[in-house]
Amino acid sequence: MAKLSVLLHQIDNGTVLLPEFQRGYVWTRDQVRGLMRSLYRGYPVGGLLLWETEPDQASVRGDATDGGVRLLLLDGQQRITSLYGVIRGDAPAFFEGDASAFTGLRFNVEDENFEFYAPAKMKDDARWVDVTRLFTEGLEPFIKDFSTAPDRFATYLERLNRLRQLLDREFHEEKITGPDKDVEVVVDIFNRVNSGGTALSKGDLALAKICAHWPPARQVMRDHLKRWGNAGFEFSLDWLLRNTTAVATGRAIFVALDTVPSKDFETALAKSVGYVDHFLQAASGRLGLDHDQVLMGRYAIPVIARLLHLSPGGRFADALHRDKVLFWYVHSALWGRFAGSTETVLAQDYEVAKESGIDGLIASLERWRGGNLEIQPHDFEGSTKGSRFYPLLYMLTRVKGARDLGSGLELHAEMLGKLASLQVHHIFPKALLYKAGYDRLQVNAVANFCFLTQETNLAIGKRDPREYFAEVEEKHPGVLASQWIPADPDLWRVERYPDFLAARRELLAQAVQSFLAELRNGASAAAADLQPVTVVVDEQDDVRATQVKAMAEELVRLGYAEPALDSEIADPVTGRALAVAEAFWPDGLQAGQGKPVVLELDPDVADLPRLEELGYEVFTSVDSLLGYVARRNENAAGEETVAPAQPTAEKGVDVEFNQAMRSIYDQARSEANYHATYFLSMLAEHGSLATARKLLHAPAVSDGFAALWERGRLDLTVEALVVQPRFVDLFTPAEIEIAQHRLSQFGYR
Question: Which of 178, 191, 500, 509 has the smallest count of CB within 10 Å of its CB?
């Protein structure tokens, strides 16, 4: 058994550490809150598993002591890290993760609840005690605060003293010892113990063994990942290890690294980093793919690294060789070559690269595609920036001289100046299309996008194409054709929008096919390098994008993983796109725990049965995902669930407001063809006033708000009802301000 105070001291002096193979901290605020609540109430919270080692037995994270036995946490990292953070007010030396998960915890001495600091609720209320301050400064600072409540003074101090006594809480310890317990054995034990939690991936296991012989390995790799991140490209540790494995062994499986000496691994890592840099320079300079959103097919890059390793000097032989490699890269990404059994496909391509180089890889890809490597107009039928053909539109814009509709200048960094940046522009404005009755997928079709300077995008604003197309073409002849915009004025009318999209897809497909043929044949291999530009996403007037962003920010604030937005999910067998998710957590809401989570707001065009068959947890509305998280948090925090109260008349609420809430539901159904079933169930369960307040205090606008915005009927939202003069007395100034902000943000006056 070990007291908590002793464990914290051992962490301070570097005798309790983390093995290098441990993943980082992944707990949420509600898990921290639940742990503190359980400890305070004397509930069991589990024991600890430690690995007792000598300094040369394992690579560790943290400030280790120079000699003597070390205790490495195998099971209990999340609990002990949380307690250290709350009690010490800082993260331990071995910490990796988001410290906000345990920062700002408060304890209410009246109701004995734990919550994280909320200024509106807790400011100037002495009953909300800063838990970290209690542990670092003791009881004395709070005696004065409670002296103003003599009838509760003794009770409050007794509760604070009981909380401080958590330092004496004893944890059961089990230790793994003995010279036969090497890294591989211990990692196997770790995975078995954590079978319901965060198990190690094959890459983690390989790195654990490498770090045992070359301790800086993981940090060196992280440094490279950070450098690429600063340049706008986000890669994972496993991905970099894939590249290094390809270079070091020519094989796709991580276990191949078992026989690679640490010095050879260090050399292979340095070389693979150089090959990745060389490829990124080519993708950016030749294709214009200069930032993360448009860098397709990450798992084609290890094949290119292997190809470069087999090439003299580790570089493309010449411009023709480079262009052929880029031709193969684009097509392998477009058709999902590495969406499925990654290791099997990589192994096949490594062998082809060794035997017949890039020509063999192209021929192999053609056979895999049944001889079809042509881009067709229907390939551009996708929508949102997550579509796999969105990067092609950006590539075309960069390499084929697309011109800004305002200035007429080609969209090259050297021509636009250092301060210039590009924005995604909806050719037909969203508001115009929604008003005309088009749905979200049609509005956000890739063929409705083009790239413009911020200045031009702002100047065009929400103007009808019939107005501004003629103006820009008269001012800068040929500028519309440079953006693959159909020249027929009849197609510029909103009622001909579907025909406009079809015509533009034809033009885009022809342009892409022509450029890719140039790459394959070396027709323009001497083209000058393109300089990177900044692409700014401005979606302040898109309620769905704003809703998803607010939801993601709220989940990150609660300690969950940050999702990938507008992310394509492909079938691992066929490479077919199954969905373009508004948000995607590939490793679960908490990294390494639970199923992959998908938020898909357009379920009619996604293959939901296949996603569920593959083990994805799919949500089709923001409200349902936030509701799931709320229930999960209640369970994590150990909250008692109370049966929902039966709806009753709300005291002090004007009958008129009840009628108005029901009326907006009826109007939405009859006038906007929107059936707000979730809203109706909230009214039945909570009543009108509580429903309005719940919606106002939600971290994101509701699905109903978003649906009514798309239909041009924000007048039927709860927010529009709340700000009416006849109802403002029912709400606080802060609630009125929230409603006003949401309405004005999306153009409702």
Answer: 178
